[in-house]
C-alpha cells in the first residue's frame, strides 16, 4: 500500500510522520500525550524523570502541559520548555513517585497533584514504596485529564470538602476488630486500598468480582466521578435530567448494593448500562459512565497525537475506517463516538494478536451513549459557563454509534 505524503503504515494503521510536519499542521501542540526532550529530541513518556539519550533531568509542567528537560541553576531548575522560569521538584520527588514541578517562588512544597494527598502508605514497609509509586503514576494521569478538562479542584485547606486522598493498607494479619480498607469516596475524600497496586491481588479481585477490567487508573476515574457528581450535578438544574437518564439517586444506596451482590444484574443490563456494576444504583451508574468517558478522551488523545488512521482490509471496511485527527478534549460527543468504536475494535484485535485480554471489553448501547453525552455536556458546561443541549447532542452521538458496524467484544477470559 502506498502511504499518502507524511504518513506510514503498520498493517492497516497509518501514522503521521511527526518529524516531517509542523505542529500547526498536525495540531498536537495542545494534546500533550507525546513528549520530547527539548535538548536532544528524544521521545519521552509522561512519567519519565531522566532523558535516556542525553541524561538531563525531566519534569512535568502542569500549566504548560509539557514534560520539560531541566538544567540546575542556583539550587533550583531551569526548564528548557520555558523562558527564564525557575522551578523546584515536587516534595514527593525524593521518593521517586512524582516528576511534576512547582514554581521556585511558590510556598507549596507539593505539586498540583500531590498536594491533595492526606495519607500516604506506611513507607516503613519497603513493599509500600513500590505500590505507592504505581498509585501515583495512575493518580497523576487522572490529574492530567482533570486539568485538561478545566474541572474545578480544591484542597482540604481551601475547602472542608475539597479533594483529598488516603492510601491505606489492610490491618496486618487481619487484626481483630479492624475492618479491611474499602476503596471508595465520601465527602471529597477518596480512599484507595494499597493492595490494588499489587497486580496479582488486583487480578484476583477482578475475577472474584466478575469484572472484565480492573486497573488503578480505572479506580481513580470511577471514584473521582463521585466527587464531581456532588459538585456538578447534585443540587444543580441538571438533577432532573440526571434522574431521567440514570435513575433516582435517593433510592437506598446500601439496600441497592446488597440486592446487586445477592441477585446480580438484570439479564438485559447491557442494553442500558456500560457495566454490570453500573446497574446497582444511579450513583454507581454515573461513576462507571464517567470513568468510561475519561477512558475515551484520554485514549483518543493518544491516538490523535500518534496520527492514527484505520483502513481495515475487509469488505465492509468503510464502516470501520477512521482518522483520529481531532482533539477529543475539544470535540463534540458524536465525533468521539464515531472514532472510538472503530479504534477499540482495532486495539482489541491487536491485543488478541498478543494473547492479551481486550483493551476495551465493553459495548456502548444507545442508552449508554446518551449518558456519556450528559457527562460530556456537564463537564464542558463548566468551562463554557452555559448550559448545553444534551438531548440534541445525544441523538447525534447515538446516530454516529449506529453507523459503525462494530461487533461485540466477546470475552476471551
Provide structural commentary:
This protein is of the alpha+beta class and 413 residues long. The chain has 10 helices and 15 strands. The strands form 4 sheets. It has a 5-stranded antiparallel sheet, with no helix packed on it. A 4-stranded antiparallel sheet has the order 1-2-14-15, with helices on one face. A hairpin with a 2-residue loop joins β6 and β7. α2 (126-148) packs across α4 (216-233), α4 packs across α7 (282-305) and α7 crosses α9. It is globular and about 65 Å long. Residues 1-32 have low confidence and may be disordered.
Short description:
The protein has helices spanning 23-26, 126-148, 199-208, 216-233, 239-246, 253-263, 282-305, 333-353, 366-384, 390-402, and strands at 7-10, 13-16, 35-36, 43-44, 57-61, 66-73, 76-79, 86-89, 101-103, 117-119, 164-168, 184-186, 189-193, 309-310, 322-323. By secondary structure, the chain is of the alpha+beta class.
Amino acid at each position: 500500500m502506498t502511504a499518502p505524503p507524511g504518513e506510514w503504515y503498520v498493517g492497516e494503521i497509518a501514522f503521521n510522520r511527526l518529524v516531517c510536519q509542523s505542529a500547526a499542521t498536525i495540531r498536537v501542540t495542545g494534546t500533550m500525550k507525546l513528549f520530547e526532550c527539548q535538548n536532544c529530541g528524544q521521545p519521552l513518556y509522561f512519567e519519565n524523570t531522566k532523558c535516556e539519550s542525553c541524561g538531563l533531568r525531566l519534569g512535568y509542567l502542569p500549566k504548560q502541559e509539557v514534560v520539560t528537560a531541566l538544567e540546575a541553576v542556583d539550587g533550583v531548575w531551569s526548564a528548557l520548555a520555558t523562558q527564564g522560569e525557575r522551578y523546584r521538584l515536587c516534595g514527593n520527588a525524593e521518593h521517586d513517585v512524582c516528576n511534576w514541578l512547582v514554581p521556585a517562588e511558590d510556598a507549596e512544597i507539593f505539586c498540583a497533584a500531590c498536594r491533595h494527598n492526606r495519607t500516604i502508605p506506611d513507607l516503613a514497609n519497603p513493599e509500600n514504596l513500590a505500590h505507592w509509586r504505581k498509585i501515583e503514576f495512575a493518580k497523576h494521569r487522572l490529574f492530567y485529564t482533570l486539568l485538561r478538562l478545566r474541572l474545578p479542584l480544591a484542597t482540604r485547606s481551601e475547602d472542608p470538602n475539597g479533594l483529598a486522598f488516603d492510601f491505606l493498607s489492610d490491618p496486618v494479619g487481619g487484626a481483630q476488630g479492624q475492618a479491611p480498607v474499602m476503596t471508595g469516596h465520601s465527602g471529597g475524600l477518596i480512599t484507595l486500598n494499597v493492595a490494588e497496586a499489587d497486580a496479582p491481588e488486583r487480578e484476583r479481585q477482578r475475577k472474584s468480582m466478575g469484572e472484565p477490567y480492573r486497573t488503578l487508573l480505572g479506580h481513580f476515574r470511577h471514584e473521582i466521578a463521585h466527587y464531581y457528581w456532588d459538585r456538578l450535578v447534585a443540587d444543580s438544574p441538571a438533577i432532573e435530567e440526571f434522574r431521567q437518564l440514570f435513575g433516582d439517586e435517593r433510592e437506598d444506596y446500601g439496600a441497592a448494593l446488597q440486592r446487586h451482590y445477592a441477585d446480580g444484574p438484570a439479564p438485559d443490563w447491557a442494553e442500558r448500562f456500560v457495566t454490570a456494576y453500573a446497574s446497582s444504583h444511579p450513583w454507581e451508574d454515573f461513576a462507571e459512565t464517567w470513568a468510561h468517558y475519561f477512558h475515551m478522551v484520554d485514549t483518543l488523545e493518544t491516538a490523535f497525537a500518534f496520527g492514527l488512521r484505520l483502513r481495515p482490509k475487509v469488505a465492509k471496511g468503510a464502516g470501520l475506517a477512521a482518522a483520529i485527527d481531532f482533539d477529543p478534549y475539544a470535540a463534540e460527543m458524536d465525533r468521539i463516538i464515531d472514532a472510538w468504536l472503530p479504534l477499540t475494535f482495532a486495539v482489541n484485535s491487536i491485543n488478541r494478536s498478543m494473547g492479551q485480554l481486550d483493551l476495551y471489553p465493553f459495548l456502548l448501547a444507545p442508552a449508554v451513549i446518551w449518558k456519556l453525552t450528559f457527562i460530556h455536556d456537564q463537564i464542558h458546561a463548566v468551562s463554557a459557563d452555559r448550559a448545553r443541549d444534551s438531548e440534541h447532542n445525544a441523538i447525534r452521538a447515538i446516530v454516529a454509534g449506529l453507523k459503525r458496524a462494530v461487533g461485540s467484544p466477546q470475552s476471551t477470559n
